[in-house]
Amino acid sequence: VSTRPSCRICGRDAFERVLDFGALPIAHRVLERRDEEEERFPFALDVCVTCGLTQILDPIDPELLYKRYNFNFSSWKPEPHLPGEIEAILGNGQVRSAIDIGCNDGLFLDRLRAAGVERVAGIEPNPYSSAIARDRGIAVYGEMVSVALCDRIVAEQGAFDLVVARQVIEHVTDLRLFLTCVDRLLAPGGFVFFDIPDFQPAARMGDCSVLWEEHVNYFTPATFARALAASGFAITQSLHYDFSGGTLAVLARRAAPVVPGDDPQTVEEALEFGRLVERYRTQVLEKLTAARAAGHALVMYGSGVRSCMLLNGLGLGDALEYALDDQPERQGRFVPGARLPIYASEKLAQETRHVVCVLAVNHENEAKVMARAGALPPGGVTFVSACVPSDIWTELERL
Ligand SMILES: [Zn+2]
Fold it and tell me: CA within 20 to 30 Å of 315's CA: 57, 83, 192, 323, which one?
């Protein structure tokens, strides 16, 4: 029996194709050898023509996608917006207890505790991250979130004034079920805090580097509000950050559920995103190919998720020679798909040609990278940012 996919917000089954990148490797599976075998999976985006949610309808099986997750990623990242988020939460009323779904290494709960929240708990299935959280003295449930788990937690220690889920709900294939879990954990009169990637800045720019096989939902402020409303939550406060290509943080409280309505404007923006990506692909490839023919060294800074999508999804891999990354764990290995070798920035010091360096790093790291790598090549370097919030079209002009 085949089932037609249905929209994760409104449940309808009419979609339009936004883009199709064919088969891509998994971005986190950095290769040990250039000729190592790797699996590829179809990557396509569709938009629900009713409510406007852009989504991956046929995601990679989570068992397969997350099974080799054997280390803790986000503890490497600086999170400059974290103090602002804590402040917004505490400005919303007294919080005596908090639970963080997908608490990772427990950093956010640790900050909440330091700010006076007496009882904190986390849910985190990744054993490496949860071990760090436990070392911080946080009670962690090491399972996938489920209604049964939430009921058990509430039976054991009561409901919570605050439920937190940061960088989680964009991975979730069953939004209704997830929000039911949130509701089970939440005390009467309590509130929830979500931090999610905001697709809108990248959608308007035509920046495909924010796409990632792990993110199955691409929320804009409008579609996220609609998703929450459908499950009986109303947003009381929204915050926007440039972090990681655009971050939306919201506070919400229980409210009467609202049946999702039509949003033709958001649908059109998603389709326009697909067209912009195609136009950008044509122009960037043309310019990179010309630069290479003129004798410049063409490299990419970054070998993570955003870099992988540019190299493999957009197809920049053939135009570039190697990748730079200052995470020692990645050096000496190869970028998935494109199989470019990964070197430390110091490699640029040996470069005799003028360097064109495509920046595929988050905004908060761009200035640091340019300061460090910019001084190295004797023949000079031109940096071109390929990621929002930079205007990637103006950047393109510098090629
Ligand atoms: Zn929909």
Answer: 57
Ligand 1 centroid vs 20 CA: distance in angstroms? 19
Q: What is the 174 CA–ligand 1 centroid distance (Å)?
A: 13
User: With helix as H, strand as E and coil as C, how does 9-42 read?
Assistant: CCCCCCEEEEEEEEEECCCCCCECCCCCCCCCEE
Q: Which helix (H) or strand (E) holds 187?
A: strand 186-197
The two beta strands, 247-254 and 233-241, are: antiparallel
Rounded to two decimals, what is the model's pTM?
0.95
For residues 16 and 178, the answer to whether their CB atoms sit within 8 Å is no
Cα distances (Å, whole numbers) of residue 288 to 75, 336, 340, 399: 34, 21, 16, 7
Report which of 141, 257, 245, 151 is spatially closest to residue 202, judged by C-alpha positions.
Answer: 245
Q: How far is the CA of 55 from the centre of ligand 1 (A)?
A: 10
Q: Residue 371 is encoded by which pair of tokens? A: 């300061």
> How far does the centroid of ligand 1 lie from the alpha carbon of residue 9, in Å?
5
Nearest by Cα to 320 from 346, 347, 286, 357: 357
Output the CA 190–ligand 1 centroid distance in Å: 28
User: What distances in angstroms separate CA 134 from CA 84, 107, 109, 185, one per listed residue?
Assistant: 25, 11, 11, 20
Q: How far is CA 286 from CA 139, 144, 207, in A?
A: 54, 45, 17
